[in-house]
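User: I'll paste a sequence; please echo it back and then give the predicted structure.

Assistant: Echoing your sequence first, then the prediction.
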Amino acid sequence: MSRRENRQVAVAAATLGPWRTAAGVGAVVGATDLVIDLIDGHWSLSMLAGPAGWGLFFFFLVGTVGARLRREGSDRRLQQWANEHPWQAALPAGGGLLVLTMLAQLFLGDAGVVEAFFESLFPAVALVTVAGVVGSVKKARGTG
């Protein structure tokens, strides 16, 4: 496959995750962090950036890792491709997390563009690393 086709398949494989469950987990984590911030008493619009970032991280984490751990899928070919290319399959979620967290930092926080990018880079790299390792272990064990 060409590079373009690989990117398209990676994005399509990202749809295999349990995204409804991921949305619930992300909402609970973000709301919990917001409650903790409210208890601290430092109220401002910028206090929404942290909970939004945590919520987005756990949303993408559960959705992406859940897709790697699923055995059944609606499209076996996409699942097989994702199992054979665990690192490439993790990249769309990492990119999505990077962009959305950066936007949350820009519009809800006090960060500038460069600071928002670097604050968003670590969670995105951590997500890709976790999802890639989980997929690689699954591939090495031959469970899929």
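The CA atoms of residues 12 and 94 lie 14 Å apart. The first helix runs from residue 3 to 13.
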